[in-house]
Amino acid sequence: MTSAPVAVEIQDLKKSYGFKPILRGIDLQVRAGERVALLGANGAGKTTLLRILACLAKPSAGSVHLYGWNCARDVQEVRRLIGFVGHQSYLYEELTARENLEFFARMYSVPEGRERALTWLNRVGLEKYARERVGTFSRGQLQRLSWARALLHQPDLLLLDEPDTGLDQQGLVLIDKLLDEHIERSGSAIFITHQLERAQALSDRIVLLARGRIARRCESEETSLETLRQVYQEVVG
Ligand SMILES: Nc1ncnc2c1ncn2[C@@H]1O[C@H](COP(=O)(O)OP(=O)(O)OP(=O)(O)O)[C@@H](O)[C@H]1O
C-alpha cells in the first residue's frame, strides 16, 4: 500500500465562509487503492472538505493535489479524475435516465458512450426506467443513477458524501460491490458516513473531523467497532 502512488495530498487546508472558519488546517494523504471514511458531527466540515476536493468550492488557504494536479488551478484535469456522489444528484430532471448518462458520457468523452450508458443503467438496476424522466425518480432511484453518473468515466478517485442515502438493502449491497470493484482497479475513495459500522467495514482508514480539524485517525483493521464508538464519543461528545 505504501508504495502506491499518492492520489490525494491535502496540506494545511483552510476554508472560511466570511469570517467563519470551517476548515482550520487539514493535512491528509490518500494513496491509490485506499478507502478513507470521514466521520464527524453535523457541521464538522466533512462536506466542505469533499466539495473542495471535487472542485466545487475553493480553499481559502493551503493546497489540495489529486494525482499531482492542483485542485484550485487544474480544474478540468481534476474533474476527469473524480466521481462525485453528493447531496445533490447533479442530474437533469427533464431528461430521461438514459439521456442523462449519455450526456455525461459525451461530457467526459467516454468511448462508445451510448453503450456505456446502457451498461451502467443495467449495473445500477435501472434498465426498466431508462426512458423515464429523472424528475419522476424516487430518492433511491436518483441515488442509483448518481452512482452510475459518478462511475461512467472510470474515475480514479471516488468522493462519496453519504452515498447510501435512500438505498434499499439490494442497493446497499450493490454500492458496496461497486466500491470494491473501484478499489480493485486501484481507484481510491473518500466517503462520508454517519454509520460507524459501515465506516469500519468499508474503509482502510477512518478520519474523524471535529470543528474543522482532524481530531483522530484510526486504521480500520486495528480498530474494533467498540473502540471506534468510544473514540467517536470522545471526539464528538
Ligand atoms: N456556502 C456556505 N456558506 C456559509 N456557510 C457554509 C456554507 N457551506 C457550509 N457552511 C457551514 O460550514 C459548516 C460545515 O458544514 P458542512 O456541510 O461541511 O458540515 P458536515 O460535517 O458535512 O455536516 P453534516 O454531517 O451535517 O452533513 C456548517 O456550519 C455550515 O453552515
Automatic annotation (TrEMBL):
Pfam families: ABC_tran. Residues 8-236 form the ABC transporter domain. GO terms for molecular function: ATP binding; ATP hydrolysis activity; transmembrane transporter activity. SMART domains: AAA (SM00382). Keywords: ATP-binding, Cytochrome c-type biogenesis, Nucleotide-binding, Transport. It comes from the Bacteria. GO terms for biological process: cytochrome complex assembly. The keyword RNA-binding does not apply. PANTHER family: ABC TRANSPORTER ATP-BINDING PROTEIN ALBC-RELATED. This is ABC transporter ATP-binding protein.
